[in-house]
């Protein structure tokens, strides 16, 4: 075991586990002192709700990845702990198997690739479980129907009828949402930076019209 943990080829995985333990201890100490480290970290980040629209066919792959990992539903620090744990343990297991079969550890950079691929589904499952277990704050929960009548700004791509693009919208609580928007007419398109007025909620996609009034700004 000592050889496994101390080998240079396993350094990324050993470091990941050390960092995980350090974060967990820091969180425990913070709780004993009366404040949550997770809350402090989340407070430094913008309030982003990426649940709406992440299942649409078009839009930001990065945004869909964040939604797939339940980021926005679970404290970021908790997701980081799950990732570091999965990454470290899976990496050490793969390296143990490699040495058992070939007599040698894989190069650290070679081992990182399959480890990262295998760790992502574990993070999704773990974060999903935490989203169910951890209490949520329902006071700021909003329905997607409340987005109708608000303005949004196209942030990625060009929206056409049947081909939505990603847009940024701010709700009445000041939280940012990334949603998929398409024009309500086939002869209209929304380019990046266009401000649109949301007119209809279709579930994963919203319909909109160009907001050409100078008084309409994203709130």
Compose a concise summary of this entry.
The protein has 219 residues and is an alpha/beta fold. It is built from six helices and six strands. 43% of the residues lie in helices and 16% in strands.
Terminal CA distance reads 56 Å
- Side by side, the strands of the main sheet go 2-3-4-6-5
Helix content: 40-55%
Give the overall shape, derived from the CA principal axes.
elongated
How many discrete domains? 2
Strand percentage = 15-25%
* Structure summary, number of beta strands: 6
Unreliable sequence segments: 51-59, 213-219
Written account of the structure:
The protein is of the alpha/beta class and 219 residues long. The chain has two domains: 2-46 and 69-133, no CATH class; 144-210, OB fold (Dihydrolipoamide Acetyltransferase, E2P) (Beta Barrel). Helices cover 43% and strands 16% of the residues. It is built from six helices and six strands. The protein has helices at residues 2-6, 11-32, 37-43, 61-68, 76-102, 108-133, and strands at 48-49, 151-156, 165-170, 176-183, 195-201, 205-210. It has a five-stranded mixed beta barrel. Strand 5 (195-201) and strand 6 (205-210) form a beta hairpin. Helix 2 packs antiparallel against helix 5 and helix 5 packs across helix 6. It starts with a helix and ends in a 9-residue tail after the last strand.
